[in-house]
């Protein structure tokens, strides 16, 4: 095995990239880039019953959208076709079927595996009996002692079979994990795993371990749910006299109630979050910190910082809670950090049918920017700004106990002053500051209060009792819309 870091992300093409799979891919990529190694995308498609058409393409495209591109293995060419690159292929596991069969037969010859002829009906009956008696559900070893010659004769006669590992039934095995240190397993509790199915395809257990050896994988970074399989995989490596890679089993992703992350409580596909408008940078930042944090005193990291700081040994053992509020907070941060043009390009399509005045639309979208978590929320946040007419019947235009006549007096005086401002000056950069200075100067000269002048003005412009300042609203609405709304409010007050 090479001393160079070679890591692989090896998903099954079941139709989408799981958010947990994204974290696994990311951690593999971080380690590879930090160490100047290879990040390999291998597709494990040996379970033919679970294949989804277009699943491979979906995984590769989603990874690319997230800024994760393997430098070896499966990729999509310029025509969008599944292709592969690298010297250790094939990287589509089903194309290695014959090689896997050879490895399995070698294990049989070595006495490390055996042919099993038990029917599905017998196995189901065994499972029911074990469950009824409270015993672990596992194969009872009925075929373990069949001589190889007898097994080969039965196979030649056309009898269906699988190949199982012939695991030790006594003693223990201690395995080392980068994250969890030493872990001890009792062989008596580990099932004789099927490694070749009746259709001739290998199971994950044989295919993954043999491919990891053939591809000289140095580190296997995968989810905690594969931890019970570790003794079986080490047994295969030991059977062939191979040096195993270093294993690191990542903590489970949990719902808020600490149950395993599931679609019942959260979306689990990366593409679902992208469709909702979560930004790739926010998702990557969020996923990276599910079970690990480089410093503990900050939450925002660039991809480059994550690469520089990544340390597998500092990943937590405990499950990581999927906190959607934190993802929302990160998305808000990245939306606010974007250049204005990029933000508008992202958000404008959600509301572009609301007005033909694109300059006005852009000003509205920039005004609500600090309250946008997802681009689609811009529809609701800009709704009143984009309305032709406002309904004042549900709001108080007057300030506290202020008489209507006084509110009309204040609004009329402000309107008169605003009518003298040039159209272009209304929306010029820094206009809101000028409005604040001039209106407050007017208030001082008249001996009025800020509240009894600015409250009616703000509600008249926004149609809401909670809104941005009247100075911001004037700059965004422009002269015609501002005067129109002030007139409407005066008319409503009668």
Task: Write the CATH fold name of the largest domain.
Answer: Rossmann fold
Per CATH, the superfamily of the largest domain is: HUPs
What would you call the shape?
A: elongated
What percentage of amino acids are in beta strands?
Answer: 5-15%
Can you put this structure into words, describing what you see?
The protein starts with 5 loop residues before the first strand and ends with a helix. It has helices spanning 19-34, 55-65, 97-109, 120-132, 148-156, 204-214, 230-240, 270-276, 280-288, 303-309, 324-337, 340-347, 358-367, 378-381, 383-386, 404-418, 423-426, 431-446, 450-462, 470-493, and strands at residues 6-9, 38-41, 72-76, 82-85, 113-116, 162-165, 172-177, 181-186, 194-196, 219-223, 246-250, 253-254, 320-321. The protein has 494 residues and is α/β, with parallel strands linked by helices. Helix 16 (404-418) crosses helix 19 (450-462). The chain has a four-stranded mixed sheet with strand order 1-2-3-4. The chain has a three-stranded antiparallel sheet with strand order 5-6-9. It has 20 helices and 13 strands. The radius of gyration is 33 Å and the shape is elongated. The chain has four domains: 6-91 and 253-321, HUPs (Rossmann fold, 3-Layer(aba) Sandwich); 94-250, Rossmann fold (3-Layer(aba) Sandwich), CATH 3.40.50; 338-386, no CATH class; 404-493, Arc Repressor Mutant, subunit A (Orthogonal Bundle), CATH 1.10.10.350. A hairpin with a 5-residue loop joins strand 3 (72-76) and strand 4. Helix content is 44%, strand content 11%.
